[in-house]
Amino acid sequence: LLKKNGHKTSDVERRHIKELKEKNKKPISRTVFRVYAHKQIKYGAAVALVSFGLLGVHFGLAARVEGSGFMDVILGIVAVGVGILFSAWESMHHGAPLTDMFPLRALMWTVMAGVCFVSFPLWTAGLFLIVASMIDVIGYLKEEPYNPPKQRRKTQKEREVAEYAAPESFYDRVRSFFISKYEENKLQRMIFCAVYIGANIGFAIYTFFLWLGIVNAMPEEDRLTIWVVFARLFGAFINLNSPLLLIPVCRTIIRILYNIATSQETCGAKALRVFFAFVPLDKAILLHRTAAKVSLMGVVGHTIFHFINYQARPDQTVRAVGFWPFYSGIVLLMICQMIYHGAFEDVKRPNFEIFWYSHHLFIPYFLLIITHGAMGLNLFFTLLLTVPAFLYITERILREVRAKREVAVTSVTTMEPNLLAIEFDKESAFGPAGYREGQYVFVNCPSVKPLEWHPFTISSPPQKDTFSLHIQVQGPGSWTEGVRNHLCSMRPEGKTFHEFHRRNAEGQLVKGRIYGDNEKQILLVDGPHSAPTQHMTEYEVAIIAGGGIGLTPVVACTESIVYHRWKYGLGKVYPAHTHFFWVVSYRDIEAYRWFISKVTECQRAVSNMRNKGDTMKGKTWNFHIFVTSVPKSINQNHVQEAMIGIKRNDFWGRQSVHDMKTLQEKSSFDKKELFAYMLNPTETEKKFNDVRVVKGRPKWDPIFQNIAKLHPKKNVGVMFCGNPFIGKDLKKMCIRYSSVERGQLFRLHKENF
């Protein structure tokens, strides 16, 4: 298709295609649709088979006849056994197909679904199996290869155990407990969790006694069983937590509050920081997931107890609520299956589209819950939904308004092997408000997939007139590849960098292009949205770490600090002491040449400020690069091939204004030397002025210990974006090295998309 449209295949693309043919598999991290089906069976259908199988046994025993009751008992026992087997099989084999010749798993699930449809209590489990079977067949038709999940290597780390005298009194024990939780940055979260759990339990107890009174007041011939009271109790969890799902995704409101809290040292900003300490809106996605899990618990309990009640008093139940709650409830269960299993990381990351489209089933989800009640109305849920729905609708309106902005794309750069850099005009995207270091945006390409929005962190400092995104192209058929091909079709053939221009209303030639050749807007931008790196202005000492493509906020922060905050800031500047860390795999070094160039130029700027005056007095700038997965035997031919194009102007990506200004400034090393050493690290650690290159994974214990000694009695902000395993290690280090007695706390702020 690209050849038909006149697209000339570059050397990089030809080499990439050749490698794919040699490997004979698609460049995706894991099977996508089959993993989606695997999750639905393991966590959805298997649990449904066991739960509704037990209900079937209960139905059959309560019937006390040899007809349908006996059949319900037998099929219920079979469903429980099959559910356990399905769960065990999927846990051991992680969604591996039984054969590549035929979707045998889907056939097995379909047969079991047919068995389930024989017994009324098992209908819902049968529907779960049918949906999972259809998704597995889609994966088969797409010829998805199976790549087993990567298992993290287990490492034994030495743990320091502090020796202390045992508390002598109850007061000392309580005080020690709260101090330890405060050091771990958990005390405020614990208070919020206590309020959240207390609200759920209190609301559930209130609902229980309310409906206990209602049931007891019913006439004997119309009275429902005690099980309906338990069903309403679990329904209270749904009524309270489902509306709460909308608040954490109101990104604009959170961003406004964040900007105020992190922009200055005023009383209002400090008050908001206290608010954020107790109400974790900075961990909005975590709050969203927690509310979703509690809602799911409510859905399961609500369904089971209503089935038990219906079995005992079917006629009275139908007279009380009608048939609609049963029909809408089954549809709600199917929607939950699609939404929850599309949110798993190994489904979401390889194919963001599944997550995106399945999550938009929240619209029928809320509409059905509103009507899920007697007489077709759930009044109490509707009242609780009013405020969150108003906030969310306002949020969506603001997003639509922002999406209508005519954002100008000023340039595009492609770099081997799979990197795309896009530069935008800042004023057209964000207006005069601009953005903050490390914030992210959602990007839409109407010419590729008009309904999809994908998040990317801004990789340039907010003081520039433009902002840039560095995007890792995922592979053939992906959204990112479609965007790259669309942008490349608008530039001259053979050029890796191209600057766009257009004529304005007065006929003048200006930078940036808004519309493509098909008269559609090239890219739509929604943002900016709050990010953890915004917290760096709250600390005098900051650790800013990134892993892989998670370095983009690191780039924005280091350029903002070196070129603007330190250079032009008056008085005390936050942060004054910065320690940057970047963890990169050896195989990805070539894709990050642009970043190596920026680190080198930042080092030159720092050295220049040290030599020319007191700008760097009382300031610290360190940059640590950890190169992981280094081969035991490095192919020197590969190193030479990587260095061949080093004289090309586009080898390092587009050169910024800051890079040009620092070209004449002296430094003990240049970017070519740093790049060459990273490709062939011969020592465990090598120092290039303030830049250190280490071969292997970071050893965080000595790093944190050294920072704690360098900056005594100063709180340290730790900002991170990247691999969640690194985030877990940083969390442990923050807990370990925080101490109220030393007057030093390490506070972790992680990226959560």
Report what the structure shows.
The protein is built from 26 helices and 16 strands. Helix 21 (593-612) links the parallel strand 11 and strand 12.
Task: Write a short abstract of this structure.
The protein has 753 residues and is of the alpha/beta class. The longest helix is centred in the first third of the chain and has 31 residues, at 33-63.
Q: Secondary-structure blueprint of this entry?
A:
Blueprint: H1 11-23, H2 33-63, H3 68-93, H4 104-116, H5 123-141, H6 170-183, H7 187-216, H8 227-244, H9 251-263, H10 267-278, H11 284-312, H12 314-321, H13 324-341, H14 345-348, H15 352-359, H16 362-371, H17 379-403, E1 409-415, E2 419-425, H18 426-430, E3 440-444, E4 454-457, E5 466-472, H19 479-488, E6 497-499, E7 501-503, E8 509-511, E9 524-529, E10 541-547, H20 552-568, E11 577-585, H21 593-612, E12 620-628, H22 636-643, H23 657-661, H24 671-679, E13 685-688, E14 691-695, H25 700-710, E15 716-721, H26 724-737, E16 746-750
Parallel strand pairs: 10-11, 10-15, 11-12, 12-14, 15-16
Antiparallel strand pairs: 1-2, 1-6, 2-5, 3-4, 3-9, 7-8, 13-14
Helix pairs in contact: 2-3, 2-5, 2-11, 4-5, 5-13, 7-8, 8-11, 8-17, 9-10, 11-12, 13-16, 20-21, 21-24, 25-26
Envelope shape: globular
- Helix/sheet category: alpha/beta
**Tally of helical runs:** 26
Strand content: 5-15%
Strand order of the largest sheet: 13-14-12-11-10-15-16
How much is the radius of gyration in Å? 29 Å
- How many E-type strands? 16
Mean pLDDT: 80
- What level of helicity do the residues show? 40-55%
Could you give a short account of the major beta sheet? Answer: 7 strands, mixed
* N-C termini distance: 34 Å
Low-pLDDT runs of 5+ residues are 1-9, 16-30, 154-168
